């Protein structure tokens, strides 16, 4: 494993990230511990579980509740569709 200090790695971080994605073991020393750079697989099917701790069943219930609330708010005129573009958020 190639182990670097934060200072050593900072200047060529892109290089070290590329090496890690190519399978090389790269680590950074941080507070006396080595923190490894490794690619991870992001799977959207378990996002709710990872981010919010919701099971598939709980997510289905939440989705129905949220959809119902949105429908009610639209009927009341409390919620309108955004018709601008992404630059309006800046």
| 3D shape | elongated
Over all CA atoms, what is the radius of gyration? Answer: 22 Å
Q: Give the strand tally.
A: 3
Structural class: alpha+beta
Counted up, domains total 2
Task: Give an overview of the whole structure.
With 90 residues, the protein is an alpha+beta fold. The chain has 2 domains: 2-37; 44-80, no CATH class. A 3-stranded mixed sheet has the order 1-2-3. It has helices spanning 6-10, 13-21, 47-52, 56-76, and strands at 2-4, 26-30, 33-37.
Tags for this model:
three-stranded mixed β-sheet; elongated; 90 residues; 4 helices; 2 domains; alpha+beta
Short description:
The chain contains four helices and three strands; from the N terminus they run βααββαα.
């Amino acid at each position: 494993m190639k182990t670097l200090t934060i200072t050593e790695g900072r200047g060529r971080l892109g290089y070290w990230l590329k090496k890690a994605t190519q399978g090389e073991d790269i680590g950074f020393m941080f507070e006396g511990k080595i923190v490894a750079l490794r690619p991870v697989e992001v799977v959207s099917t378990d996002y709710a579980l990872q981010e919010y701790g919701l099971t598939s069943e709980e997510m289905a219930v939440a989705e129905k509740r949220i959809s119902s609330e949105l429908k009610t708010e639209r009927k009341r005129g409390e919620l309108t569709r955004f018709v601008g573009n992404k630059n309006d958020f800046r």
